[in-house]
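User: tokens in, sequence out, please.
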């Protein structure tokens, strides 16, 4: 049942819970978008091999967590890393996480 929140402390607590739900959703959406980008890039180059046989494009773990400023507030993001040794399907930057959105560990733009 819906009710009107009249107490300021209760209203602030409700706003905190709601903000956390929004931040969690934004964090999940960003992680899913980044994983999808990497899957597409690595999958598109899976047939490309060097002279000795190893794949030219492989996953390489995750980068250090970084703080990213979004409309939902600051989020901790850990981007997937790719080892690209000269494939023909170059991706120069993430479409999901523009360079201007990234922040260094100290919280200053890079």
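Assistant: Sequence out:
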């Amino acid at each position: 049942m819906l009710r009107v929140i009249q107490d300021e402390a209760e209203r602030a607590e409700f706003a905190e819970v709601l903000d956390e739900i929004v931040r969690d959703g934004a964090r999940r959406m960003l992680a899913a978008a980044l994983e999808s980008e990497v899957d597409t890039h690595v999958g598109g180059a899976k047939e490309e091999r060097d002279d000795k046989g190893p794949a030219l494009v492989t996953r390489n773990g995750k980068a250090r967590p970084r703080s990213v400023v979004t409309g939902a507030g600051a989020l901790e993001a850990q981007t997937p890393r790719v080892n690209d040794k000269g494939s023909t399907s170059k991706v120069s930057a993430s479409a999901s996480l523009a360079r201007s959105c990234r922040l260094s560990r100290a919280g200053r733009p890079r």
